[in-house]
Amino acid sequence: MIEKSFRGSTGYWVWVVMLLAISAAGFGSYMGQLTRGLGITGMGRDVSWGLYIANFTFFVGVAASAVMVVLPYYLHRVKEFRKIVILGEFLAVAAVVMSVLFIFVDLGQPGRVFNIIRYPSPRSLLFWDMIVLNGYLFLNLLIGWSTLDAEHKDEPVLGWVKPLIILSIPWAVSIHTVTAFIYQGLAARPSWYTALWAPRFLASAFASGPSLLILMALLIRRMTPFDPGLEAIRKVAKIVTYALLATIFLFLVELFTILYGDLPHDLSHLRYLFLGLEGHSGLVPWMWTSVVLMVLAAIALLAGGAKHEGVLAVTCLAVFVAVWIDKGLGLIVPGFVPSPLGQITDYVPTLAEALITAGIWAVGFLIVTVFYKVTVGVRSEE
Fold first, then answer.
1. In this structure, how many other beta carbons lie within 10 angstroms of the beta carbon of residue 215?
2. How many whole angstroms from its chain centre is CA 149?
3. Around 234, how many Cα atoms within 13 Å sit in the side-chain half-sphere?
4. In 10 A of CB 281, how many CB atoms?
5. Which sequence spans correspond to the domains of the chain?
6. How many whole angstroms separate alpha carbon 74 and alpha carbon 84?
7. pTM here?
8. At a CB cut-off of 8 Å and minimum separation 6, what does 183 contact?
9. S-S: 362 plus which of 22, 86, 137, 245, CB 3.0-4.6 Å?
10. Rounded mean pLDDT for each run of 10 residues along the chain, 382 residues in total
11. Assigned CATH for 2-376
């Protein structure tokens, strides 16, 4: 089936070449980082996690969100999801690959990756994060490809695939839960030390991931002969609506806890995000943009925006960007600013850091493009 990805229009090949060029630029910047070290990034002693880990956290959520189409179709027999579920599984594959690549570039020296394998430590959350991420990648790749191959051959799905599908549902929840545990167990970082991170992570993931899936489905519906189904897209939009409302609610709960508790460390992190602290206000416009986009998107969805494809596309893009800002920059940087000693260090990603990040995004979209091209080819035959 993979040969279907080698046949396409001029526009398709222009898109592929552009992604390869961006990936090459990112790889070139990474070779510079490999030679000169992480000093070429904007990270340092005070802010040791930055754009890489922000994107890692976000795309783990995108990967986990595949369960929002897998669960209704395979457990509740929602037939409208038949055509869109495989798009969600392949999107999860690309998202997990991107997450792993962001960890890889953040380590600095690639050889450090093997330390987790050579010296396994079940007491380490990073060890379990490696287990759940790689396991989830294997599950979605195997399930998606086996299901598509069965359709291509006009045969029923093999019996051993169905237990893996059921297993992938709790596994999806586990990958983002373990990621949340990495942060919320660090008592020295007050803005991360909260039991709400796991539910907030999952709620925002179930808003941003399906939003990206809707955008992909609308694009496929418009540009190819394969139609994932408008009714399925609208049902996924309902999932986005409820997940977005849950995200906003959990944010307000956290906001109440911080303001009512009136603890100086918690208040300083919140003030740094939304008002600026001692003249440092680099994240303020970003965070207010995220809040405004979330509120406007929620209003649009509640007002029936899913009935109009154009409005739905803009709304889903707003949700995706808002959650990326909130879960990326709004999570990582304030964990370090101010430091436990009260020092404020502004973090600004460098050009090299941005190029490496863009390269990994391009790799992810290239994987999605290839898998979706094969899927469209098989479904068009059907």
1. 18
2. 27
3. 11
4. 15
5. 2-376
6. 12
7. 0.91
8. 189, 192, 197, 331, 335
9. 22
10. 71 92 95 90 87 92 88 82 88 93 88 78 82 88 82 73 87 90 82 87 93 93 86 92 95 91 83 85 90 95 87 94 90 81 83 95 94 80 60
11. 1.20.1630.10
